[in-house]
Amino acid sequence: MKNKLIVGLLLFVSAVWIAGFSLLPFLPKDNSFQAFYPFLKVSYARVCHQKPDECFRINDSYFLVCARCTGIYIGAFFGFLFSLFSFTKYFRAIYKYFVVFSIIMFGDVLINNFLLSSYNKTSALFTGYLFSFFAVNFVIFEIKRNNFFHSAQRDI
Amino acid sequence: MKNKLSTAVVCGFGAAVLGTIPGVKTVGCCLLLPAATILSLYFYLRITSFTESISVKTAMFIGLTTGLSSAFFSVIFEVLSTYIFHSNDLVVSLTQVEILLNSYNLGDLGKETVNILSKMSDDIIANGFSSTYTVFLLFNNILVDSAFGIIGGLIGMSIFNKKYFTRL
């Protein structure tokens, strides 16, 4: 029950974080929240380069984070949602998925930044999403398995 | 305790330095700080000779301290560069932001936002320092970096416990 409460809280926090960088383009131009745009931009600049050509554009406004970060945060949200319903415990090979999708994402980072002349937002979004989804599930699986306390040289 | 703090401060400093390099930030993006925390955990394991697995509490502590040190060092770098050049991203982009907010017809709230930003910009141009901007930046960096540090700590804990302390 305590686990679900914590995961539920993390789900809420990730939803608020996603709303922070993606909500403004969907709101009317005269909505009061638009006044927070400069402050939100500075806040998200701490964790993303925010290059306009690498960000999604909706209603003539850009998201405040790049396509890869968008995928990572959405993936984290669905990762929390997935683990909230305790599906993770049936997912024993989660570490392998995490490693595979980490390699795929880092490969995509290298290809997009150093090999391709134009940035592929779709691949960045999906590789970021898959990496984050499995990272969240892997971490929650490990935390649950270690039962929130220190366990030296534990045999599983 | 000393081991945890020293690795966290070193890696936090490294993350703050790398965060100022535009090319590195483009590639590292939001994974720069979690990566620094994972490295910090690895150094901690090396120092303790891989004798025991990492607890959630230790991972969160190292993540938090890495995030905090990164936040403090990055603010120091930002304040120093702003003081030297009497300019920063806020000053450069103010005109565009002003035009954008005025086009939105936000009324008093929009005007108030522009006033706050203009005051910060004027202070930076005149003195090379704005206390409001520094406090905002410090508060923001502490909040964001701590969260991302803790996330990195938990990812690192999961990886290292799985790799070094699990016998399947």
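Chain B touches chain A through 47 residues (CB under 8 Å).
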